[in-house]
Amino acid sequence: MKIPLWVQPGLWGVVIGALVWWAVLAWGFGWVSAGAAQQTADNQSQAAVVASLSPYCVSRFEQQANAVTSWQALKKAANDYNQDDYIKKGGWVELPGQKLGDGTASAVADDCATKLLALKQINGVKLSSLK
In angstroms, rounded to a whole number, what is the distance separating the alpha carbons of residues 2 and 127? Predict the structure, then answer.
């Protein structure tokens, strides 16, 4: 089928107009696809869970009887890139009866470990004096 020559500029106008309209929706009005919106929502909800559970994790870690010894083991594990596993295996990540997904549990454990390693003291013991 042959398109008449006088119709071609109109078709190009429709194509270019559609592309411009999509660009205006995306950048001007913040329109995104359903998949991108879902990914953003997932990221934000995980960030909220991490922000709420990390202080709990740090608090539980500090309240244990052997917190200084555990901190030393965490520091050693951090040198071996196993700090997430150490925190998860210690049971400090989840609330009692709670089951987090692997990605969320790892994110909480990573944030908790970072905060724990940044501590200056635990239960009155200065951590900078420990080897």
Answer: 81
Q: Which two tokens stand for residue 64?
A: 């244990």
C-alpha–C-alpha distance, residues 43 and 39, integer Å: 6
Structure tokens at 130: 């420990």
Task: Identify the DSSP state of 59.
Answer: H
Over residues 87-97, the pLDDT tens digits come to 999 999 988 88
Total domains present in the chain:
2
Q: How far apart are CA 104 and CA 37, in angstroms?
A: 19
124 in the same domain as 72: yes
Residue 19: give the domain boundaries.
Answer: 1-31
> In terms of DSSP H, where are the helices of 64-130?
67-79, 83-90, 102-117
52 and 113 part of one domain: yes
How does residue 131 score in pLDDT terms, banded at 50, 70 and 90?
A: low
Does 108 lie in the same domain as 63? yes
Q: How far is 64 from 53, CA to CA, in rounded Å?
A: 17
